[in-house]
Amino acid sequence: MSKVRFITLLVFFPLCGIFAQEKTLLKEDAVIKALENNFGIEIAKGQVEIAENNTSILNSGYLPTLTGTAAATYNNNNTTTEFPGQFNDDGTERDDISIDGAESQRYSSALNLNYTLFDGMGRFYNYKRLKEQYQLSTLQARETIENTMIQMFTVYFEIARLTENKNVQKQALEISRDRITRSEYSFEYGQNTRLDILNAQVDMTNDSINLLNTEQQLANAKRDLNVVLNQDLATQYQVDTTIVFIPKFQIVEFMDEAIKNNVAVLQTETNLNINAYDIKVNKSGYLPTIGLTGSYGWNRNQNAPSAFLTGAVFPGTNSNVGNYSLGASLTWNLFDGGSTTVSVKNAKITYANQELLRKQVELEVNRDMQNAMALYENLLKIYQIQEQNVFTNQNNFERSKEQFQLGSITSIEFRQAQINLLNAQTNKNLAKYDAKLAELQLLQLTGQLLNIEL
């Protein structure tokens, strides 16, 4: 008896302390946490922000450019001026003039304005292209979110399945414990042998090990979900094991509109629009560019002292304030060696390839939907069969239990009925969550994964 009680306390006592403190993490709450905290989704949001910044008027090329320049120069020179063969008024030879430390400064500043009036419509189509690029980034972010939701629900349903399996195995362990007690009483009254006690103890040990393994798998699955939700790995919780399936007619309606909503198809269409703008951007190279220029400048020169023929030595200052100029320019690359022609041809080929890719993606999406629908319907049927199988095995177990208590069947036969019920229950749990996950994957293909209530 002491060994049996030790195994029971070993399995049940730690679990009671854990689950008494756990809260239920609803599916809706898990979705919110994933959207707010998941690393992959946060990175995708950052990419969308970059694409949005690129669509700003500041990145369109429609605004002028204004540059400012300023310069200052300082000189310090020693100079000697000679007057060979020159004489003063009194007939004496003219002396040399030396200037030491002659300083001069030059200052200048300017503002230059450039504005492109026309560039062959290149910037217009490039701006349109950036808008489509932003749309593509949002679709890529949506794809990341959808994939993260599937990943999150895969782990969430695994936790739910293991939770239900754990409860089933706890019941099996309790039944085995009762068997040991009954076998010991029967042995004391001489109704069976010690072999029945040993068989019951072996079965209880196996049930205890199975429960401990399930608990370990459950703990690992919770840590996996904590990673997806970007929360503390030690966070403990229970999950909602309730499953509600979407009516089939609604799924069929979603499938009829899948080509308009599937994220992969929408990405190929957006890439097609981008390629169309690439053709027009490259064609702009055939047209001229017209621009305006303007400048405003200021200059000041502080000259060093110098000697003149009169013999006077003095510095000079020259200032120009408020100089401005306006201009217009036309640039037309009449022949660029054929590079523009080649770029246009390549852009058209890329557009044609993108059209083929779109048709291929649409065909693959339709195939994947048909396969996913067939798999979903098959798993639903399996789930329904497993539910009936649990009902049948439950009745068989109850009858076997009555017969075992009356001594009409052996403990081995009773154990077999218990194992059959345990297998039926775990298989039903597996079928239920497999069917729901298949439904979510089908909804992802139809583009409705983020639009349905859980």
TrEMBL record:
Record key words, sorted: Cell outer membrane, Membrane, Transmembrane, Transmembrane beta strand, Transport
GO MF, one example: efflux transmembrane transporter activity
Record's signal peptide: none
SUPFAM superfamilies: Outer membrane efflux proteins (OEP) (SSF56954)
InterPro entries reported for this sequence: OMP_efflux (IPR003423), TolC-like (IPR051906)
Keyword Transmembrane appears in the UniProt entry: yes
Cellular component, GO annotation: cell outer membrane; efflux pump complex
Localisation per UniProt entry: Cell outer membrane
Record bears the keyword Repeat: no
One Pfam family linked to the record: OEP
Family the entry assigns: Belongs to the outer membrane factor (OMF) (TC 1.B.17) family.
Protein name: Outer membrane protein TolC
